[in-house]
Design a protein that fits this description.
The protein is of the alpha/beta class and 202 residues long. It is built from 6 helices and 7 strands. The strands form 2 sheets. Strands 5-4-3-6-7 form a 5-stranded mixed β-sheet. The chain starts with a helix and ends with a helix.
């Protein structure tokens, strides 16, 4: 078995396990990932928790499949410009679904920034789920983050990608093929290991 095939198998195992949790287990046992924490931010009173719950709990048939083209989407960023997943062909893309009130997202953010800064062939696309622009803008500016960002104001893209808790990340290869997803927070080491595995399998 050559190195390339072995790398593909390893990546598939790691990422398929993540997707299994979305499709088979549904909502995670703990709700703290998707319930706003009072002490995370003082500027999140306008978050519509019930609307978010409707998005993640509503039954939905998605076309998302590992090994197939990742569902494309077009959203706006904080500058009002359109951002499409297909814009990033030729790069590995880490699509990260997050919110400012999510404490594990907050912990993960600096590692996403580091990963984005250190890899020329990789793009972190942070998709904020169902928050207003001012809240997101304040959070991004305070953290000094400059990775690409998109606003999923209605939660439709999170729904398409079967996001049941935050943070949730998906990896898309340079050809736009969905490699799999990881529910929950990742460390920098975990992110980097998966990215290296993707490179080795090319």
């Amino acid at each position: 078995m050559n190195k390339k095939i072995l790398s593909i198998i390893i990546i598939a195992i790691v990422l398929v396990v993540g997707l299994y949790y979305f499709t088979e287990l549904g909502q995670r046992e703990t709700e703290e990932d998707i319930v706003p924490e009072d002490d995370v931010s003082e500027d999140i009173e306008d978050i519509d928790e019930e609307a978010y719950d409707e998005v993640v709990e509503d039954e939905f048939t998605s076309d998302i499949s590992i090994g197939e083209e990742a569902p494309n989407f077009t959203l706006k960023n904080l500058e009002g410009e359109e951002v499409s997943l297909s814009d990033y062909r030729g790069n590995i893309v880490l699509v990260n679904f997050w919110a400012t009130w999510c404490k594990y997202c907050d912990i993960e953010m600096p590692d996403l920034q580091k990963l984005d800064s250190e890899n020329e062939d990789l793009v972190v696309l942070a998709v904020n789920v169902m928050e207003d622009e001012s809240t997101v803008e304040e959070y991004i500016e305070k953290g000094g983050y400059d990775f690409d960002l998109a606003l999923d104001k209605e939660g439709d893209i999170a729904k398409t990608y079967l996001v049941s808790g935050l943070p949730t990340s998906y990896f898309v290869d340079k050809d736009g093929i969905l490699l799999g997803g990881v529910p929950g927070m990742m460390t920098y080491a975990q992110m980097n290991q998966l990215v290296e595995g993707i490179r080795e399998s090319e």
